[in-house]
Design a protein that fits this description.
This protein has 383 residues and is an alpha+beta fold. It is built from 14 helices and 5 strands. It has helices at residues 3-31, 40-67, 75-84, 92-99, 101-111, 115-148, 190-205, 208-222, 226-248, 255-270, 294-305, 314-334, 343-360, 369-373, and strands spanning 150-155, 158-163, 170-173, 178-183, 283-284. The longest helix is centred in the middle third of the chain and has 34 residues, at 115-148. Residues 376-383 have low confidence and may be disordered.
Length: 383
């Protein structure tokens, strides 16, 4: 892959995450006014699929333009067509400069000749390096905890470990095995132990660990993009809502005891040191961040005690999913670079040249370049 292609794919990924986040937040806002507002399990499945789609979209577009359609409709060509129809009030030279801004930026970043491009590349590389080292440190700390923990039992291929180094239970995995790590103090509370195990095992059923791995490994690429953190926050919030909701539907579950278990776990998480405690990728019963904002725990309890809608609405979810998928794919397609010179682009280039000729001309009245091509230019009558 050439430097230009790599930079374009990187920009596309960041723009798609931004567009996907805006689309999802808008969809969530609309769903909050319908009976599907509390269908968290269906929403989580949709968001997990959209995460994979956003990651794969730049590569899918490369394959699409190479094997299906070399020059699909794109935003740049659509804007040129609107300009030629007189719907854009801007000089042709300024409009052409605006259209070529991305290509010029990518070209300068690839050549690394300007000082600002070197500074930007160094900043992004340094940031990615710091985030990568932080992620590796977190994985290393997690591996140490797993190594020092004691195997208690194995349930359906999941190894249940007891650790003296953690206050709140969490689940994780490696390439071959899945783990649930329990604090040793939890063994003294059989009821909380049972509820905690049920919660963490549900995370495995929802494939939350694999999704957390994907999101964390994207962090070095997207660390500077605020939309990435919004997207990650939404997934983590829905993940817990969906897990709690799935457990609340089990027969025989003491809902009051489960809520009290969450409150006690939140209190224990607040006692952990703030710095250098991160072990990832993991999915905990209660995240350390929930202790900083009491509304998160409040939202979980409200979601638990709210009326759970029947998820017998396949047509509605199919329509919502299909619409979001089409909008993301359409966005990815519109971001593609224009191809060879088209008729519209030749017209735009001609207008730019006429404008420049008019500016340089010192004799005669100024000529509107757009009006010339639209046929409204009339030569002055001779005296």
């Amino acid at each position: 892959m050439t430097a230009d292609a790599f930079l374009n794919s990187y920009i596309d990924l960041n723009l798609l995450v931004l567009a996907g986040t805006l689309l999802w937040l808008s969809t969530r806002k609309l769903l909050s006014r319908t009976r599907l507002a509390h269908a968290y399990r269906a929403q989580l499945r949709l968001m997990n699929f959209l995460t994979i789609l956003l990651v794969l979209s730049p590569f899918l577009m490369i394959a699409f333009t190479r094997y299906v359609m070399a020059h699909p409709p794109n935003l740049s060509d659509l804007l040129v067509a609107q300009y030629l129809q007189g719907n854009v009030n801007m000089s042709a030279a300024s409009f052409e400069t605006l259209l070529g801004l991305r290509e010029d930026t990518v070209r300068q970043l690839a050549t690394q000749q300007a000082l600002w491009t070197k500074a930007l590349a160094a900043t992004l590389a340094l940031g990615a390096l710091i985030v990568t080292l932080h992620l590796l440190l977190s994985v290393w700390r997690l591996a140490l905890v797993l190594r020092r923990a004691h195997l208690w039992k194995s349930i359906n291929g999941v190894q249940i470990l007891i650790s003296d180094e953690t206050r709140v239970a969490y689940s994780t995995r490696d390439l071959w095995r899945r783990y649930v790590v329990l604090p040793a103090a939890l063994l003294q509370s059989p009821k909380d132990l049972q509820l905690t195990l049920a919660h963490e095992m549900q995370h495995f059923r929802q494939r939350d660990i694999e999704c957390e791995f994907l999101i964390e490994f994207l962090r070095p690429l997207l660390f500077w993009n605020p939309a990435y953190y919004l997207w990650r926050r939404e997934i983590r919030k829905l993940r817990e809502f969906a897990c709690d909701q799935a457990l609340s539907q089990r027969t025989g579950l003491d809902l009051r005891a489960y809520c009290e278990c969450l409150i006690r776990a939140c209190g224990l998480a607040a006692q952990e040191p703030v710095y250098f405690v991160r072990r990832s990728p993991t999915v905990a019963l209660v995240d350390r961040r929930e202790t900083r904002n009491g509304s998160n725990l409040h939202q979980r309890i409200v979601a638990l005690t709210s009326e759970i809608p029947e998820e017998q609405a396949p047509a509605s979810w199919a329509a919502i999913s299909g619409l979001l998928i089409l909008m993301i794919i359409a966005t990815a397609m519109l971001m593609q670079r224009p191809g060879d010179w088209s008729h519209d682009r030749l017209m735009l280039s001609t207008i730019v040249n006429l404008e420049r000729m008019a500016e340089r001309s010192s004799a005669g009245p100024a000529v509107d370049a757009v009006s010339i091509l639209q046929g409204s230019f009339l030569p002055s009558s001779s005296q």
